[in-house]
Amino acid sequence: MEIIKKEVVICLGSSCFARGNKQLVKIVNDYLRDRNLLNEVRFHGQRCFGHCAVGPSLKLDGKLLERQDEDTVIALLDEFFETV
Ligand code: FES
After folding, report:
1. Nearest Cα residue to 11 out of 74, 64, 61
2. What is the pLDDT of residue 4?
3. At a CB cut-off of 8 Å and minimum separation 6, what does 28 contact?
4. Of ligand 1's atoms, which has the minimum distance to the CA of residue 48?
5. Among 28, 37, 77, 79, fewest CB within 10 Å belongs to which?
6. How far apart are CA 59 and CA 6, in angstroms?
7. What share of the chain is helix, strand, coil (3-state, %, to 5)?
8. CA-CA distance, 19 to 33, in Å (whole number)?
9. Is this model's pTM higher than 0.70 or not?
10. What three-state secondary structure class fits 29?
């Protein structure tokens, strides 16, 4: 039986990427690595979500989260993974 993993998807569309997701890819990856979560989550990029005006965006288990930055994303991940 396959274990259902949590999913983190980061928008790699040009608008989000230029506005911060380039940095967020590393921040999210470091977060997952430092907490030994890399095997428990499916972390990947995707093309434009179609919400460029409110980017940079990412999705946690399908939930779109807008206007993320280096300060907000850690708190978001803490809540998502219940690591606080
Ligand atoms: S580039 Fe990210 S929503 Fe369009």
Report:
1. 64
2. 76
3. 8, 10, 43, 58, 73, 77
4. 4
5. 79
6. 11
7. 45, 20, 35
8. 24
9. yes
10. helix
The tokens of 71 are what? 């300060």
Tell how far the Cα of 54 is from the centroid of ligand 1, in angstroms.
8
Separation CA 7–CA 21 (nearest Å): 17
Residue owning tokens 């230029």: 18
How many angstroms is it from 17 CA to the middle of ligand 1? 8
Paired with 10 in beta bridges are 45, 58
Statement: residue 83 has pLDDT above 90: no
In terms of residues, how long is the chain?
84
Beta carbons of 80 and 60 less than 8 angstroms apart? yes
> What is the DSSP secondary structure assignment for residue 50, as one 8-state letter?
S
| Rounded distance between C-alpha atoms, residue 15 and residue 18, angstroms | 5
Domains of the chain listed by start with CATH number: 6-81 (3.40.30.10)
